[in-house]
Amino acid sequence: MKLIAAGVAACAIALGVVLPASSAAADACPTRMLFEVGGMGDPQGNVFNAGNAELPPGVEATKVVYPAEIFPLAPKTLDDSNAEGRATMDRLVREFHASCPGSRITITGFSQGALVAGDTLGNLSKDNRIPHDLINGVLYSDARRVGVNGGPGGIMTNLPTFLPGITMGGPRTFGDIPVVSLCNQNDGICHSENLLTNLLGFANGIQGYFSGAHSAYDFRPVTHNGSANTVFPQPPLIPYGPPLPLPIPTLWELFNGKPAAAGAMNTYRSVVSAVLPQATKDRLDEFPGLAS
Question: Which CATH architecture does the domain made up of 29-286 adopt?
Fold first, then answer.
């Protein structure tokens, strides 16, 4: 097809005919473009490289490069880093759609990148500059994942904002844009039990984060379509049962945006620390949202 188009263009030039620019541009467009964002410490989105090596014909990938940092583990705060990522993602997506208005767009991210990708999807769902039937999302370990049937959601739906530069944004939705959200049960970033009704379950999410559950995903977003909010069952690393059958709100619901948030989190951080193995306790400052 490209050879035919090239031949037509050559003949047109020889005859002095000017072809519409859109014809040549459309011929060069993929049927689907993946916009990929990596997690903390992966500004180039290398976590998606294996999947990109297997992309089917007509599907291409664009890496959304951003700082991928979280203070105090790196110079930039999570909020500043993510703001840069969202701005870059929004620009790249809109530029691509302007050039290839008929192509599908998949927005995908892992961990911190899932925040960037998910927030971008949420913003796109609120306007119609890009038709929603051309957009879908695939999120791996989204800290703002909504819990299923009242179950645990992401940690940013569970803990309040208490550290400068790390805004716990709460749950978010995507309107009519289909999004697949994937989460491992032991991954405390996307599956965070209510600390007030299931302390051991909350601690298990921290233990799982440091024991590999956070990165154990199959990063092949091209294979995921439709809408799904999936938690993959895993045997707990810290034994825990169902939450207390009491209507106790999460700490996010109780304290987010209130001056008492920092004091409350200092108290509950000590409570959680007491039930963790020493090796995990020593690394608690590395768990996003729990630094002291």
Answer: 3-Layer(aba) Sandwich (3.40)
